[in-house]
Amino acid sequence: MTAPTTDIDVLHYSAFTTHPDGGNPAGVVLDAAALADDDAAMTAVAARVGYSETAFITERDEAARRYRLRYFSPLAEVAFCGHATIATAVALADRDGPGELVFDTASGEIRVETTADGDGDGDGPSRATLTSVPTRSRPADPGAEVEPTLAALRWSADDLDPALPPHVAFAGNDHLVLAAATRERLADLDYDYDALEAVMRRRGWTTVHLVWREAADARGSAKGSSYGSAGGSPDGLTDGVVFHARDPFPVGGVVEDPATGAAAAAFGGYLRALGLVEGPTRVRIRQGEDMGRPSDLLLDVTPDEPRVRVSGQAVRIPQSV
């Protein structure tokens, strides 16, 4: 029997932004101990909230700042969610003060560092930096995985960037990574919801992570089909590389996610697996722009460390009484 959920206190935060109208909203339940064994109740709360994810703290050790964290979309539980992790960490930092947190999730232990001074200038909302579980990435199967996905997206093979091959990347759950050849292709997203959902359920993907690599600017970022690096190699990534991303999420009952920290972490592992990271590298992902909810995600990737650090700010969303 599902427990009553109308009296559950849900905080509303938007992650990877400094403004409530940007980023990806998440519900945060800081005390869900009463729902710990009631998946149906947590799904009901997530459905009522209506965001792509709501996070529930079901167990806690306040002294150690260690928490059991579960994530639910409006349809089902998800093993790991990056933006809801950032939102929960900032909610705890706002309540208890900044510092290190440990979340035990279905995907494994996630350590998060929080700072009250998000921008380093004494102002702005808190920032959280999560360290992912070990990432991995493999080439996607052209026939069984890429072709049906392109068909559902209404894309063709010519729409893809040949320098960034399709992969299935993991950082707590699986994401298909497809790189668009142009910004225009990324912006024009009009996919077959049912067809893409069917492919994703069959393959066990959480999102399809669509990216486009921004051209070089005066600072020497990536351009064309090769990268610049501090060491001069055309194959490495340089700090300041910018990607734009979109993440269809039909398996969660959501057309598109405006910021996807789990997919961003997986994408960091993808770049590492392709050998594009020669040293400690900072990658910026811009997401949500085409939805009117701009989001900023920062990745820190190193070639000899399978874990990826994902950083972002989060802000409380005011709720009308």
UniProtKB/TrEMBL annotation:
It comes from the Bacteria. The keyword Nucleotide-binding does not apply. InterPro entries: Phenazine_PhzF-like. Residues 114-145 are annotated as: Disordered. The active site is at 53. Pfam families: PhzC-PhzF. The keyword rRNA-binding does not apply. GO terms for molecular function: isomerase activity. Keywords: Isomerase. One of its GO terms (cellular component) is cytoplasm. Belongs to the PhzF family. This is Phenazine biosynthesis protein PhzF family. It comes from Streptomyces violaceusniger (strain Tu 4113).
